[in-house]
Amino acid sequence: MHSKLGEFIRAHRERTLPDSVGLPGGGRRRTPGLRREELAQLCDVSPTWLTWLEQGREVQASGKMLARLAEVLHLSAAERAYLFSLADRLDPHHDDDGGSAEEALDAIVAAIDAPAYILDRQWDAVAWNPQAERLLAGWLSPSPQSRPNLLRYMFLSAAARELIVDWPERARRLVAEFRADIGRHASEQVLAGLIVELSDASATFAELWTLQDVVGREGGLRRFRHPRRGDLDFNQVTLHLAKRHDLKLVMLLPQT
User: Fold this and answer.
1) Helix (H, G, I), strand (E, B) or coil at 223
2) 201-210 contacts at long range (C-beta below 8 A, 24 or more positions apart)
């Protein structure tokens, strides 16, 4: 994957005209595009580091660095998304489209005739439908002050222990699923802060986190003991969105 990332960056460097980034285009050039040293200077990195990146060596590019590369190389939205996908990094500006993106997520969950919600990388709920709101009223609400976080609800809310059947086992699996889901991103500021917060606030979370357990988010039977509707069984299905791999669509389909 590193080689594909390097090839992609080099190809777009060589097709970026110097005058498009405010540099003189004269002089002898092997290609009409930017020299490696020029791109390195524009991105505030060393030419050696950029050389290694283009050669596919094992160097890590931060989200901030990739965002700067995308700007200098005038990448389209699709090209920018491809760049971050090759680097396995989350675009720090992925929410810049604001309302239109939120409306699209709302439309997805609204079209599902079952409890459904969408989680981001730190497991904040970014969209949910009325069915999910009625089932998970202790977590999801019509006008939340901030994005409801599934882990905060699970470990810091007494309502979760009453609603979720076999809470200890579900809590154990949830932490292992979260570790698997965030992978190499665990050291990022937002995620690291969330882990510290939960570890400080919940001895159970802290103990489960130190176990280093990892399991896939496989779905399957989910059982609830609702205060008004009684015992409810669902089959959970989780899908990643094609254009936003950091988002997960979770559906709770009634058992038939």
Assistant:
1) strand
2) 201/155, 201/156, 202/155, 202/156, 204/155, 204/171, 205/151, 205/155, 205/171, 205/175, 208/171, 208/172, 208/175, 208/176, 209/175, 209/179
| Strand 125-128 versus strand 230-240 pairing type | unpaired
> Average pLDDT of the chain?
88
Nearest to 207 by CA among 216, 219, 198, 217: 198
Confidence tier at 25 by pLDDT (50, 70, 90) = low
**Contact, 150 vs 139, CB < 8 A?**
yes
The pTM for the full model equals 0.68
Q: For each of the domains in the chain, give its residue range(s) and CATH number, in order of start.
A: 2-87 (1.10.260.40), 99-254 (3.30.450.180)
Cα distances (angstroms) measured from residue 191 to each of 151, 178, 201: 12, 11, 15
Q: How far is CA 46 from CA 3, 35, 68, 200, in A?
A: 19, 13, 14, 40
Please answer whether residues 213 and 172 qualify as being in contact, where contact means their C-beta atoms are separated by less than 8 angstroms. Answer: yes
The DSSP output letter for 57 is -
Residue in the block written with tokens 């690291």:
192
Read off the DSSP letter of residue 97: T
Per-residue pLDDT at 98? 47
Rounded to whole angstroms, the Cα distance separating 42 from 13 reads 12
Radius of gyration over every alpha carbon of the chain, rounded to an integer in angstroms: 22
Please state, in angstroms and rounded to a whole number, the distance separating the CA atoms of residues 171 and 134: 21
Which tokens sit at 199? 């570890």
